[in-house]
Design goal:
Elements: E1 6-17, E2 20-31, E3 35-39, H1 46-53, E4 61-67, E5 73-75, E6 89-92, H2 104-110, H3 118-130, H4 134-138, H5 149-161, E7 167-171, H6 179-194, E8 198-202, H7 206-212, E9 215-220, E10 223-228, H8 230-235, H9 237-244
Parallel strand pairs: 3-8, 3-9, 6-7, 7-8
Antiparallel strand pairs: 1-2, 1-4, 4-5, 9-10
Length: 261
């Protein structure tokens, strides 16, 4: 079930890799137009959660429901990843998120496969998306592999928007970026949610992510530990002591945290 006003509800989700169970009954909700962050220490199950939502990892228990473009509740617990674009769900994986041997334009064209209306619809949607990503417009004919890390991240987000989604899932959008680019990426994501697009983001830059988020969840050992409004969690002494760290760098590090070993 999914309540009115929600775009995503994952309830009691358990999943993992082979015999290694990573998630143990996680609950996540994303409202319409909300910017929601999932954070936690390495190994807490953050990236596995996103992969489970989009079908790259199988639900072992629990269920995930979305509200599609038409406002209908759709159970995607057993959905294949390739079917989600047509329902209005886009996923941006960590780091290796563009096709480096293809041009920037070809990367964007590939994302239009689930967009109804053919070439004309793609051209219209392309113009809309490129208004938010001028650097991507400037490099349309370039091979994606020649882009900088920040430019690749902008391309990956632009590509995610081409199918006109209602929900975008972002796995570590700041990974590998220079510190001065992280706020630019978060600001761009915040723009999307202000336009009504729902965003679920996994992020290691915890303090910055919380300050930008409407709501946030803290996972620990594959379970929900804390949740609340992003800025409130960022100011909570318990969260600071346990996760942000007084006098330490305000993040958890940049490793991919939960692939099975």
């Amino acid at each position: 079930m999914i309540a009115d006003g929600l775009i995503l509800h994952s309830e009691g989700v358990a999943s993992g890799y082979g015999d290694a169970k990573i998630l143990h009954g996680v609950d996540i909700k994303v409202g319409k137009g909300a910017f929601v962050t999932v954070m936690g220490p390495n190994g807490s199950g953050k990236s596995t959660l996103l992969k489970t939502v989009v079908g790259l990892v199988r639900h072992q228990a629990g269920a995930t429901t979305i509200r599609d473009r038409g406002g209908q509740a759709v159970d995607i617990t057993r959905a294949r990843p390739y079917a989600l674009g047509a329902l209005g769900v886009s996923y941006v994986p960590q780091m290796a998120n563009v096709f480096t041997d293809m041009s920037v334009l070809e990367n964007l064209q590939l994302a239009s496969l689930s967009l109804l209306g053919g070439r004309h619809a793609f051209q219209e949607r392309l113009e809309t998306v490129l208004e938010y990503f001028p650097i991507v417009r400037e490099r349309l004919s370039s091979r994606a592999g020649t882009l900088s890390g920040g430019q690749r991240q902008m391309l990956a987000m632009a590509r995610a928007l081409i199918p006109d989604p209602v929900l975008v899932l972002l796995d570590e959008p700041s990974a590998g970026l220079q510190p001065d680019l992280v706020d630019s990426v978060f600001n761009k994501i915040r723009e999307f949610s202000a336009l009504g697009l729902s965003v679920l983001m996994v992020e290691q830059k915890a303090r910055q992510a919380l300050e930008f988020s409407d709501y946030a969840y803290v996972l620990e050992m594959g379970r929900n530990r804390f949740e609340g409004a992003g800025p409130a969690l960022a100011a909570d002494p318990k969260i600071i002591d346990l996760y942000l760290g007084a006098g330490r760098l305000p993040d958890f590090g940049d490793e991919d945290d939960d692939d099975a070993t």
